[in-house]
């Protein structure tokens, strides 16, 4: 499997607070990777640092063979990395379709509106509704769909099921599996362990700003004692 993202010795700071302590991680093309960990261990910071939102960093981030450490944020997006933050960032006064059309296309393999509406039927029904009228689940679907139209090669999701009803969580899982079938590479942070165990190919377990374990989904049964200890699941 070709390596799409390679993170080596990644350190990051918020002011004088040293948050990441040498994060090492590899994401293969077409893989779906989930970072597990309790609140405050550095999961979201890892995503923000990879994306280039957090600039106080050192180490190495290689995406598709290119060094991304000195690349500005907008160039990171154009390189083919799309980020859906936990807060989603929906423009409340724009309609669903206007939100979808807002980001620029960065590559020719992005989904068309018809493909997006086939993947997210709820959005087609609400395409003329403003962002303020959407439920939390619809906003999450829109945030993901908006990135898919741009043609990114790596989709980064921060807590995609946070605060959503079980039926919507199930729908998000179905969407992620369909994206994997299309060859999309996905890196996500997820607190919902049951959800993560149904969609991920491989897990990284994070604690105190470091990756403390890396294992495929097939090893979950033998790793449960460790997960109970670190996550409390």
UniProtKB/TrEMBL annotation:
Entry-linked PANTHER family: HIGH-AFFINITY BRANCHED-CHAIN AMINO ACID TRANSPORT ATP-BINDING PROTEIN LIVF (PTHR43820)
PROSITE patterns reported in the protein's UniProt record: ABC_TRANSPORTER_1, ABC_TRANSPORTER_2
The protein's name in its UniProt record: Branched-chain amino acid transport system ATP-binding protein
Family label: Belongs to the ABC transporter superfamily.
InterPro entries: AAA+_ATPase, ABC_transporter-like_ATP-bd, ABC_transporter-like_CS, BCAA_Transport_ATP-bd_LivF, P-loop_NTPase
Organism this protein belongs to: Pseudorhizobium tarimense
ABC transporter domain mapped to chain residues: 5-233
CDD domains in alphabetical order: ABC_TM1139_LivF_branched (cd03224)
Domain of life per record: Bacteria
Key word Nucleotide-binding present: yes
Keyword Transport found: yes
Example GO molecular function: ATP binding
Keywords recorded for this protein, A-Z: Amino-acid transport, ATP-binding, Nucleotide-binding, Transport
């Amino acid at each position: 499997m070709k390596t799409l993202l390679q993170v080596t010795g990644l350190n990051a700071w918020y002011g004088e607070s040293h948050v990441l302590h040498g994060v090492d991680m590899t994401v293969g093309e077409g893989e779906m990777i989930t970072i597990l960990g309790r609140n405050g261990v550095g999961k979201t910071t890892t995503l923000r640092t990879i994306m280039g939102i957090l600039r106080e960093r050192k180490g190495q981030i290689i995406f598709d063979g290119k060094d991304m450490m000195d690349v500005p944020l907008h160039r990171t997006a154009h390189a083919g990395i799309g980020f859906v933050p936990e807060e989603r960032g929906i423009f409340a006064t724009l309609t669903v379709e206007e939100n979808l059309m807002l980001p620029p296309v960065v590559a020719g393999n992005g989904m068309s509106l018809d493909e997006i509406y086939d993947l997210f039927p709820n959005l087609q029904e609400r395409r003329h509704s403003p962002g303020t009228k959407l439920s939390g689940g619809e906003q999450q679907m829109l945030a993901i769909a908006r990135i898919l139209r741009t043609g990114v090669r790596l989709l980064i999701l921060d807590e995609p099921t946070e605060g959503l009803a079980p039926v919507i969580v199930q729908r998000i899982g179905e969407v992620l599996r369909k994206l994997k079938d299309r060859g999309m590479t996905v890196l996500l942070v997820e607190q919902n362990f049951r959800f993560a165990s149904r969609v991920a190919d491989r897990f990284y377990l994070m604690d105190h700003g470091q990756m403390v374990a890396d294992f495929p989904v097939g090893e979950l049964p033998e790793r449960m004692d460790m997960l109970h200890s670190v996550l409390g699941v």
